[in-house]
Amino acid sequence: MLKVKDSCTGCGKCEKTCPFGAIKVENKKAVVQDNCNLCGGCVQVCPFDSLELERKVEKKDFTNYTGLWVFTEVKEDGTVRNATLELLSKGKELATELGQDLCAVLLGSNVGELAGVLARYGAKRVYIVDQPELKEYNTDAYSTIIIGLITKHKPNIVIIPATPLGRDLAPRIASTLEVGLTADCTGLSIKDGLLLQTRPAFGGNIMADIMSPNTRPQMATVRPNVMKMAEPVEGARCEVVREKVSIERGLLRVKVVERTRTSMPGEKNIDEADMIVSGGRGACDEGNLRLIEELAKVMGAAVGCSRAVVDLGIKPKSHQVGQSGKTVSPKLYLVAGVSGAIQHLVGMKSSDVIIAINKDPDATIFQVAKYGVIGDLYELLPKLTEAIKRERGL
User: Fold this and answer.
1) Crossing angle of helices 377-392/290-299, nearest 10°?
2) Is residue 217 reached through a cis peptide bond, with omega within 30 degrees of 0 on the bond before it?
3) 2-53 is a CATH 3.30.70.20 domain
4) Hey, where are the domains in the chain?
5) Which one has a higher pLDDT value, 54 or 120?
6) What's the pLDDT score for residue 29?
7) What is the mean pLDDT of the chain?
8) b/e sequence 29-56, b meaning 16+ C-beta within 10 Å
9) 48 Cβ partners below 8 Å, 6+ apart?
């Protein structure tokens, strides 16, 4: 609440400052109106320190909230996205430390058989809603169903992959439940029984640790490829809980009328590629990434790029590696023509082996590379491509 002290003189500065018109000066004293939203702007401008903001947080009993839930994202081909398996692998560690069950939430059409996959990566219980209306992702339907499941079963923690789908779904759930949400996490751990959520802040220059002690469930989205996927345990079993829901047509306000591909059929997705050849502005040859694409083709690798290449309109955003693009963690990341801005580094530095090519010996990219080649990429890449062709008999 906003308290007005006796020292208030009715100077009117708070009334003029409030962007919501929530303070009026009456009889030479500030009076707080019902529409005050506690933004605190008036407190900052009061010359007499006559306004005091009190935010009371009610302490609630969360002992009946238990379990760590992972949302399962299903790809168009009916398989589980790797980002989900990564979260299950990490979630297993966290749930064990908390002494709670690791659970998965699975929505879709004809997805029941995927419970076995989730079990092999650590899920002890899988909540399944399997209905034809859920074949394609729909924000309204998916969020409403998951909110209902959370309200019914009361999980302690809910984590969701920070994919385009997850970034759409998680805020809707958190907003409706009025709980906190930490987006795009790169690290998760347990501290004092709470989920410690780590994410880049201020353009990736610092790492922020965030906790949600006053609301449940604790929610976070996690970038793909930042958690190591564990080896599956063959023969593992899980409890399957099938939930029945009624999906009214009025709930489905959005209908998919057209799909547009931003990649060529058969082109590798950088999210799940074992090898990536990536280029920056310095590798753009006559408005294209010809040398990068030719090398990637003979290697059987995916094509990545920096934000500068996307801004030039040469590649779609689905190929962008970096803080505002995708986080990748391939076995091999070969990059040419990228200087090494921090925004790009945070998206690829967890790769197993990084090979960098740049003619600037002081380029920042060499600080994270295992192997660095100082030279002109326009001379080196064609030679490398030809060498691989000869080796493979292409």
Assistant:
1) 20
2) yes
3) yes
4) 2-53, 68-250, 275-392
5) 120
6) 93
7) 89
8) ebebeeebeeeeebbeebeeebbeeeee
9) 7, 8, 9, 11
